[in-house]
């Protein structure tokens, strides 16, 4: 790999200077695909407290709801793992732009079909299929952004691409807040004979329109075209062979990439998304306090405990209180996501300052401390909503921001003929490890989300160690 400093005139330019209109267009289209990609994933997260109880026919506080939601997460992660690998290989063989079209059509169609689910198992199966497209789109888009950008711009552009995910999360939060958090609109939708959460899934068909723009505007990267020409002349250069990822010189990159992604995705689904519960729990406590519903404590008689649970469900189940709690949950999600978005955008700049490995270590170590602060100190105590609102963006910055590093770092580790395959495999095999974690928590442990977060937070320390074994790619051209 050549060092970018070998071209003095190039190295003096700022990351945004000399970028062509077409390169900006690639970034825009890839980012929009990722926005809708994340929307399709997060629409379930934002609506699961309403969707799964409806499908199961039980109260939202029933333990089966949490178990089925964890199972749905697990199947979503399994689908992402399969789709990321399959579509990553396909993109190395038939092209980035063509494969991006297939992935977007895949996740759009099955998200829309989710609006018609009648049973919990149907939603779980559809989450698996949606995730196949979701995992594939990231692998293709991250490779394409890396390949069309100059070396000086690659890290920042990759971070911007991955940071666009926050708009998908915010879009999902706004959609569900409008459909469920608005009492009047909720009632109107219900009177029309629809479940409000189903409308959110039906909207998921809209990203399919983006595929027309991709077909019209995008061409295959020059480096991919050159890789195809080399493959015709040399059988050993054939693209998209997964087996090469486990042979020298790719093995170390593959192991480090898979481990980093597994840590990042396990902590995202097991820690980060529960940051949004901070203001939700505070709002629930305030509602119960105002209604005079007081927890009798662990030493109380069983009859008193049962009475408390009945009063709690009745109080939190009114339309007004349900909407109040939902608004608090959405505010938590927004604050968490805004902070995460900043962490994602700035990863590229930080990695140019500290190196790719240094940036990962920085994010992982501070994330560990913030998880302890939020889940061990602030949430168990009577912390004011204002303090929680101030901490949540910082929490989001470090627990989510490291994910931009996958879009920056993974494509830099593999040659063009294996870039989609390698980046897709690393990122999406991380989903496989996360799926295992969710099956454990869904079937075996069934602990509170806050306890789960504390159990998982040492993984951040492991991530800071694992990255030390990776190759530093700052200041280098992509390997051909």
Automatic annotation (TrEMBL):
Cellular component terms (Gene Ontology): plasma membrane
Protein name according to UniProt: Sialic acid transporter
Membrane topology term: Multi-pass membrane protein
Alphabetical keyword list: Membrane, Transmembrane, Transmembrane helix
Xref: SUPFAM superfamilies: MFS general substrate transporter
Superkingdom to which the source organism belongs: Bacteria
Regions crossing the membrane: 24-47, 67-89, 101-118, 124-148, 160-179, 199-216, 251-271, 330-349, 361-379, 385-410, 422-447, 453-470
């Amino acid at each position: 790999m050549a060092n970018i400093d070998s071209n003095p005139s190039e190295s003096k330019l700022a990351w945004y200077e000399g970028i062509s209109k077409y390169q900006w267009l690639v970034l825009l289209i890839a980012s929009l695909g990722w926005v809708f990609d994340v929307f399709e994933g997060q629409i379930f997260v934002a609506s699961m407290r309403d969707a799964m109880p409806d499908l199961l026919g039980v109260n939202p506080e029933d333990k089966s709801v949490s178990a089925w939601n964890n199972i749905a997460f697990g199947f979503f992660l399994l689908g992402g793992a399969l789709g990321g690998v399959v579509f990553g290989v396909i993109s190395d063989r038939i092209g980035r732009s063509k494969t991006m079209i297939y992935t977007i059509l895949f996740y759009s169609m099955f998200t829309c079909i989710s609006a018609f689910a009648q049973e919990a198992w149907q939603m779980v199966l559809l989450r698996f299929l949606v995730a196949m497209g979701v995992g594939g789109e990231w692998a293709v888009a991250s490779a394409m952004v890396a390949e069309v950008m100059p070396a000086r711009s690659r890290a920042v552009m990759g971070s911007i691409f991955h940071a666009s995910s926050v708009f998908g999360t915010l879009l999902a939060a706004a959609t569900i807040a409008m459909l469920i958090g608005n009492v009047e609109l909720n009632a109107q939708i219900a009177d029309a004979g629809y479940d409000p959460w189903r409308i959110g899934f039906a909207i998921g068909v809209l990203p399919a329109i983006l595929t027309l723009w991709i077909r019209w505007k995008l061409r295959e990267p020059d480096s991919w075209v050159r890789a195809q020409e080399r493959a015709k002349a040399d059988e050993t250069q054939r693209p998209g062979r997964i087996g090469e990822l486990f042979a020298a010189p790719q093995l170390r990159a593959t192991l480090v990439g898979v481990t980093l992604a597994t840590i990042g995705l396990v902590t995202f689904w097991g820690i980060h998304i529960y940051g949004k519960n901070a203001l939700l729990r505070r709002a629930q406590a305030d509602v119960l306090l105002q209604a005079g519903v007081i927890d009798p404590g662990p030493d109380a008689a069983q009859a008193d405990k049962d009475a408390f649970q009945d009063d709690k469900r009745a109080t939190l189940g009114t339309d007004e209180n349900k909407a109040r709690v939902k608004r608090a949950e959405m505010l938590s999600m927004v604050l968490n996501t805004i902070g995460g978005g900043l962490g994602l955008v700035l990863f590229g700049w930080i990695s140019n300052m500290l190196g790719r490995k240094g940036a990962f270590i920085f994010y992982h170590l501070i994330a560990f401390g913030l998880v302890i602060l939020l889940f061990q100190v602030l949430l168990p105590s009577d912390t004011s909503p204002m303090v929680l609102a101030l901490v949540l963006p910082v929490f989001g910055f470090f627990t989510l921001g490291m994910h931009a590093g996958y879009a920056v770092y993974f494509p830099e580790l593999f040659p063009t003929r294996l870039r989609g395959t390698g980046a897709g495999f690393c990122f999406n095999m991380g989903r496989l490890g996360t799926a295992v974690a969710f099956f454990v928590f869904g079937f075996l442990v069934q602990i509170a989300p806050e306890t789960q977060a504390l159990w998982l937070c040492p993984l951040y320390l492991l991530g800071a160690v694992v990255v030390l074994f990776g190759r530093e790619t700052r200041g280098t051209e992509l390997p051909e």
